[in-house]
Amino acid sequence: MASPSSPSSSSEPPLIVTLRLDEHSTAIFNELRRRHFPPHLNRVGAHLTLFHQLPARWLPNVLADLRELAPPPFDVVVTQPVLLGRGVAIEAQSAKLEAIRNQLALRWSKWLTPQDRQPFRPHITVQNKVDPAVARQLHATLAQTQYWPTVLATGWSVWRYLGGPWLSEAEIPFRRSTSAEE
Fold first, then answer.
1. CB 85, CB 39: distance < 8 Å
2. Cα 142 to Cα 90: distance, rounded to the nearest angstrom
3. Are residues 73 and 151 in contact, defined by beta-carbon separation less than 8 angstroms?
């Protein structure tokens, strides 16, 4: 049996955890991906990744923790485009998201890859794997946008990474607040 401290020791496809966004915002970012992401590489819709590679054998723990920490829906402020070198992402900010992500990272610390141990920089990638000049041009264009929508975080999505495409494993909606929580 593989140790929880060795995430890549399993032959099962790893898990990816993303933040689900409201339908309207998702449509906006999906349209940006449709226009600017290389079509042959655009295999998943717009998303905000929290964890890139968790061991599949810990799926029950991952789902239990995500359900336990699922808050009521909350706002995520979309701020500006960020140049990724060979692509462009839209930066996102939320103290609530960062706090929950930090709690999960502590719980899952033995499973995290070096990529998931890095400081969390929430973003939505709208272009990747293009010539740097193409990325710089899109970045300059998007930097002129005066308004980015505040998006509503609505849940978690858990995926299996299949070497390119992702397979949906679970959708965990955020719980609606009760009047006692407000």
1. no
2. 9
3. no
At 111, list the tokens: 């499973």
Residues 140 and 97: their CA atoms lie apart, in Å, by 28
Q: How far is 182 from 147, CA to CA, in rounded Å?
A: 29
Of 117, 160, 129, nearest to 42 by C-alpha is 129
Q: Check if the beta carbon of residue 58 is closer than 8 Å to that of residue 44.
A: no
Mean pLDDT of the chain: 91
Q: Which two tokens stand for residue 82?
A: 């960020």
Q: Give the model's pLDDT for residue 2.
A: 36
Q: Which two tokens stand for residue 73?
A: 């829906």
**Main-chain phi, psi angles of 68, to 5 degrees:** -65, -40
Residue type, 159: W
Residues paired with 125 in a beta bridge? 89
Residue 3 predicted with pLDDT over 80:
no
Determine the length of the chain. Answer: 182
What is the pTM (predicted TM-score) of this model?
A: 0.89
Quick: pLDDT tens for 85-140. 999 999 999 999 999 999 999 999 999 999 999 999 999 999 999 999 999 999 99
